[in-house]
Design goal:
By secondary structure, this protein is an alpha/beta fold. It is about 35% helix and about 30% strand. It is globular.
């Protein structure tokens, strides 16, 4: 089996981890890391004993696939160039700055028969994978994703930075179109919304209440689902899953509830995401999180931001 030649474009905090994951995969050949900051590119390249570049256009003919971990406003231009030149793309979330750009990338990938994967890494969380088997008919979903402030994410809103993780997971579980969105949010430390809450109603009747903050004093990634006769909670941070199931009718002092709980090692979701991307290329099959999946989540994020901006402008 020939090695897939790989590169990472943008090797800041997250991109560096992407490069390390490629380096750890036996059937991948990490050829180069690319960054407009030549010193940063050289530092990561030296760490991994590979070539450093400052211009992603130099990758043509040298790689089969690449991960785009540059700042969000650069996703479209970089990914478009790669797809136009026959290179499979794994792009960090959000897919692009606008859904129009995202639509163009999806069409380009489909036209050129290339894999376009979006880095919604929570899909590879062992706790979600385990719990998904139990989630058949969600009626109500509530999630909280809170994090301390990190200056590196100031180019996007908290909806595109944090909430979009939960939006993607919700959309993958509900498998229904949003029909009504109500949202509120506010800037705190940046000029963009840093805290946000959205209530989303779907055609199926399911309702999701989603809260995100990037100015919290603690980190929290909790996801709760109510469905007929069951309640399930996931702690994405610790890997803990709790399930409460109704087993009969209430009578007297008997509570017909069965409690189950399990905890999974957090594993290495980013490594699993990278392996899945390479497997999609080798097996010529759609990505676990396709460009279209990323586009649907982006459109919902845009709708939420629109609602917030309308409220803030009053």
């Amino acid at each position: 089996m020939s090695l897939l030649r790989c590169a990472v474009i943008g090797v800041g905090h997250l991109g560096r981890f992407h490069a390390q994951k490629y380096q750890a995969i036996e059937d991948a050949n990490l050829v180069s890391v690319v960054d407009t900051d030549s010193r940063r590119a050289a530092e990561v390249a030296e760490e991994l004993s590979i070539e450093a570049m400052t211009d992603y256009r130099q990758l043509v003919g040298k790689v089969d696939c690449a991960t785009v971990a540059a700042i969000t406003p650069a996703h479209y231009e970089i990914a478009k160039f790669l797809l136009e030149n026959g290179i499979h793309v794994n792009v960090e979330k959000p897919l692009t700055t606008t859904s129009e750009e995202g639509e163009e990338l999806c069409e380009l990938a489909e036209k050129n028969n290339l894999v376009l994967q979006v880095g919604h890494v929570e899909r590879f969380n062992p706790a979600l994978i385990s719990a998904r088997k139990k989630l058949k008919t969600p009626l109500f979903i509530e999630c909280h994703r809170l994090a301390p402030f990190k200056p590196r994410s100031m180019d996007v809103t908290v909806i595109h930075d944090l909430m979009i993780h939960d939006l993607d997971v919700i959309l993958s579980l509900v498998k229904s179109n949003p029909v009504d969105v109500s949202a509120i949010g506010s800037p705190v430390l940046t000029k963009l919304p840093d805290i946000a809450n959205a209530r989303i109603e779907f055609e199926s009747g399911c309702v999701a209440n989603v809260t995100s903050s990037r100015v919290s004093q603690k980190s929290e990634r909790k996801f709760r689902v109510f469905q007929p006769n069951q309640y399930l909670s996931i702690d994405f941070g610790t890997g803990e899953v709790n399930l409460l199931t109704k087993t009969g009718e209430f009578a007297g002092d008997n509570l017909p509830l069965e409690a189950d709980a399990w905890s999974l090692d957090k594993g290495d979701a980013l490594l699993d995401e990278t392996i899945a991307f390479l497997n999609s290329i080798r097996q010529q099959k759609p990505a676990v999180v396709t460009g279209r999946d990323g586009l649907v989540a982006l459109k919902l994020a845009e709708q939420i931001l629109k609602e917030i901006n309308q409220r803030l402008s009053k």
